[in-house]
Design a protein that fits this description.
The protein has two helices and six strands; from the N terminus they run E-E-H-E-E-E-H-E. By secondary structure, the chain is of the alpha+beta class.
């Protein structure tokens, strides 16, 4: 399922990143790599604040849809 469907407070593990190569590389540089746990801190109108690798990152819904958990 895409990360955008994860529930607030839920920790899931990244399975794969979809999309164009440049988008996948950008997300990988932010720490979104297969096997890494990611926690949804909050969600508002599809925009998400995530906790990954001891950092907080904000993503919009279109980017969160590219991350499969």
């Amino acid at each position: 399922m895409p990360l955008s469907m994860a529930v607030t407070g839920e920790t899931t593990y990244i399975k794969r990143i979809t999309g164009k190569d440049e988008i996948r590389r950008h997300l990988e540089r932010l720490g979104f790599v297969a096997g890494v746990p990611v926690t949804v801190i909050s969600e508002l109108n599809g925009n998400m604040i995530l906790s990954i690798k001891n950092s907080r990152i904000a993503l919009d819904k279109s980017m969160a849809n590219r991350i499969m958990v």
